[in-house]
């Protein structure tokens, strides 16, 4: 019995397949994907979908999808949602919170619980001096 064997797809083939599948999603205007890990049995892919409002034609919201696509030599890549090992999404402000977390997590040098605060990680020297200048000198100590 001759069983068909699949070769692992390239990163560009994975991204092309994801874009083709996402193109069928209504109002999905922009699709951006990257392969985070191309393993022998799993492909980890991050995809950002940007949706437009049909009335205004402006981007109304964004979604970040993080997926693990299993690969087997005998069956190829499992693209369907039910076959994926892991799948989760975040939307709009959640994407920004995740981005801030990923950009700053290594700056936390001690174990503990941290919260992501929107805005700049620290004030500039000019902003700090301006804030100190507005304090009453009795409260400066």
Explain briefly what this protein structure is.
By secondary structure, the protein is α+β, with helices and mostly antiparallel strands.
Could you list some keywords that capture this structure?
141 residues, alpha+beta, 5-stranded antiparallel sheet, 3 helices
Give me the strand/helix succession.
Answer: HEEEEEHH
Low-pLDDT windows of residues = none
Rg calc: 22 Å
- Helix amount, in percent? 10-25%
The main sheet comes to: 5 strands, antiparallel
Which term fits the overall shape? elongated
Distance between the termini: 84 Å
Structural class: alpha+beta
The fraction of residues in strands falls at 25-35%
Mean pLDDT: 79
| Helix count, DSSP H or I runs of 4 or more residues | 3
Question: How many strand units?
Answer: 5
How would you describe what is shown here?
This protein has helices spanning 11-22, 93-104, 125-133, and strands spanning 28-38, 42-52, 59-72, 76-77, 86-91. The chain has 141 residues and is of the alpha+beta class. Strands 1, 2, 3, 4 and 5 form a five-stranded antiparallel beta sheet that branches. The longest helix is centred in the first third of the chain and has 12 residues, at 11-22. The N and C termini lie far apart (84 Å). 6% of the residues are buried. The model has no long low-confidence stretch (mean pLDDT 79).
Topology overview:
Elements: H1 11-22, E1 28-38, E2 42-52, E3 59-72, E4 76-77, E5 86-91, H2 93-104, H3 125-133
Antiparallel strand pairs: 1-2, 2-3, 3-4, 3-5
